[in-house]
Every structure is written in structure tokens, then in C-alpha cells.
């Protein structure tokens, strides 16, 4: 019942650029399986109504399909692929961006015992669960507001808060709640992730990043691995290679220069790691990108 209406609403309001009239709400419609593509997740809730998606984060693989949702609590480098989508039954899904400030506000308003206790360890940065009827009902009511412009400005923020509350009190609540806790392990790792992304071309000492994020070195290693499924150095390499691919789309004849811009002093190492990541050496992949439209970052959607 819920999925039928959800599919109808998503199909009706899907746009090529995935945007909607409600801030922070995205709709995807994909009519064919694509090759695996790298992207960043953002901090987002993704609910699938039709089709399926597979994501790889480090050595972890996540699959989610109709009636399931995925939560990404940290902006992480993933490789995503639609595994079930065709013109007759396109993949359909909704994405809702998650704001730490909104989580923090709800935590302050919640009474004692309204949400389960959040443990001290950092949860995985990505989690998949079955969507409850209450969550699906709230998502559908949010989408109905796309047909009700006079009610949208007042009611959409209220329904988004309800969706966030359903997440916070649901199976993946521990992950979502840590988004709003300034001193949570997830928040510490998020600070480290943000710093590495902003300085990906620079070498760094793990001890210095641990200090910046407010953790001991041992706790930093443990929590960073739990959230990202990678070591800090592996994470930096993923960011470097993704940035290199974006640069090659516009500078296909400057493979050596692109490698240097993202932090590789050794062209052979750059070519070797690029090929391992994307299945082709930089020059060949750049030629393909020059001939094709650069793939849109699909993140965790649909």
C-alpha cells in the first residue's frame, strides 16, 4: 500500500536534475543499470520505492531495495551501482539531506528516555534497514506536499522533523543521534574526514589529525575505521583519486599535471593506483570521459 503510492509520487515529480520544490529533498529516477561509479554520499537518508542499489565503502558492501532505507551519517567516498532498473520499471527513490543542527534540536526537545541511550563507540558511517510503516507514511506525506504549494512552506518543515524523529528513534537511531552530539565519536571522526577532504593533496601525520579531531591516536584509528571502513591514509587516497577523475574530465591531456595537483609526485604510482580504482589507466579513462557525459554523482540514491 505504502510503496504503491510512494512509487506514484516519485514518478510524477522526478526531474532530470533530481531537485524538488522542497529544500533538501531529492528524487531520482533511473531507467538502466549503470557501471559502478565513485561519488560522495553526503549526510542523507535514502528511501527506495522501486529498483535496487549497491554501494561499496572500503571492504563493506551495502544493498538496499524497495521498502528499505539507507542512512549515511558522514560524507564518505563510495562506489555505487544501480542493479535493478529498466525503462518499464525504473529505479525510484527519495533522498533527504540530514542536518546535524536539526538532530541536535530534536535531542534537546526529547524527554528523558524518549530515545535509546547512545553508546560511546562510533557506528558505521552507513547503515541499511527496513523502513517502518510510520516512516514510509511520513515520507509519503512529505511528497504529497509537492502537489500542495500553499501548504508546503508551513507543513514541509514539520514533516521533515517527523521523519528525522522516526529515524532517531528507530533501528539506526544511534547513528543518526550521534550526528547531533558535538562530542560524539562520530562527530570527532566527521571533523577528521572534513579536514582530510579539504587538505587531500597534502601529506599528513595521523597523530596530527587525531589531535585535531580531539581523540587519542588509538581511539582515532579505531573509530575512523569503524565509521569509514578505511584507514585515514586509505581514505585520503580515495579522495585523491576521485578528485583526479573529475579533473581529468576537463584536462584529459594533462595526466601528469592532474596527478601532481591531487598529491602524487610519482606518475607511475598515480597511474597504478588510478587503474586499480577505476579499471583503466588515467589516459584511457580520460579519453572515455572526453567522449561521454561525465556521470552525475549518484551518492546513496535512489
TrEMBL record:
Database matches in PROSITE patterns:
HTH_ARAC_FAMILY_1 (PS00041), HTH_ARAC_FAMILY_2 (PS01124)
Q: Which UniProt keywords apply?
A: DNA-binding, Transcription, Transcription regulation
Q: Could you identify this protein by its name?
A: HTH araC/xylS-type domain-containing protein
Q: What would be an example GO MF term here?
A: DNA-binding transcription factor activity
Give the signal peptide as a residue range, or say none if absent: none
UniProt source species: Streptomyces malaysiensis
Entries under SMART domains matching the protein: HTH_ARAC
- Give the start-end ranges of region Disordered: 279-302
All residue ranges annotated as the HTH araC/xylS-type domain in the record? 190-288
Pfam families xrefs: AraC_N, HTH_18
Q: Does the keyword DNA-binding apply?
A: yes
Amino acid at each position: 500500500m505504502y510503496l504503491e503510492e510512494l512509487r506514484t509520487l516519485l514518478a510524477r515529480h522526478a526531474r532530470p536534475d533530481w531537485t524538488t520544490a522542497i529544500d533538501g529533498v531529492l528524487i531520482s529516477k533511473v531507467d538502466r543499470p549503470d557501471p559502478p561509479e565513485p561519488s560522495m554520499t553526503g549526510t542523507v537518508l535514502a528511501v527506495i520505492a522501486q529498483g535496487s542499489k549497491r554501494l561499496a565503502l572500503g571492504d563493506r558492501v551495502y544493498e538496499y531495495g524497495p521498502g528499505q532505507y539507507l542512512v549515511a551519517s558522514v560524507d564518505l567516498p563510495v562506489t555505487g551501482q544501480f542493479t535493478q532498473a529498466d525503462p518499464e520499471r525504473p529505479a525510484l527513490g527519495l533522498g533527504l539531506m540530514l542536518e546535524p543542527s536539526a538532530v541536535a534540536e530534536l535531542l534537546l526537545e526529547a524527554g528523558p528516555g524518549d530515545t535509546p541511550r547512545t553508546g560511546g563507540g562510533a557506528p558505521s558511517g552507513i547503515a541499511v534497514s527496513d523502513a517502518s510503516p510510520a516512516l514510509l507514511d511520513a515520507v509519503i506525506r512529505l511528497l504529497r506536499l509537492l502537489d500542495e504549494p500553499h501548504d508546503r512552506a508551513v507543513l514541509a518543515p514539520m514533516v521533515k522533523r517527523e521523519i528525522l524523529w522516526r529515524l532517531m528513534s528507530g533501528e539506526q537511531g544511534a547513528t543518526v543521534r550521534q550526528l547531533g552530539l558535538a562530542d560524539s565519536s562520530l562527530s570527532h571522526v566527521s571533523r577528521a574526514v572534513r579536514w582530510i577532504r579539504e587538505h587531500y593533496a597534502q601529506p599528513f601525520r595521523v597523530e596530527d589529525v587525531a589531535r585535531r579531531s580531539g581523540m587519542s591516536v588509538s581511539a582515532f584509528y579505531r573509530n575512523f575505521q569503524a565509521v569509514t571502513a578505511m584507514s585515514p591514509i586509505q581514505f585520503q587516497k580515495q579522495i585523491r583519486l576521485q578528485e583526479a577523475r573529475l579533473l581529468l574530465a576537463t584536462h584529459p591531456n594533462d595526466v601528469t599535471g592532474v596527478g601532481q595537483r591531487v598529491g602524487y609526485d610519482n606518475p607511475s604510482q598515480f597511474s597504478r593506483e588510478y587503474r586499480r580504482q577505476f579499471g583503466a589507466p588515467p589516459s584511457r579513462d580520460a579519453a572515455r570521459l572526453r567522449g561521454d557525459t561525465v556521470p552525475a554523482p549518484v551518492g546513496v540514491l535512489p
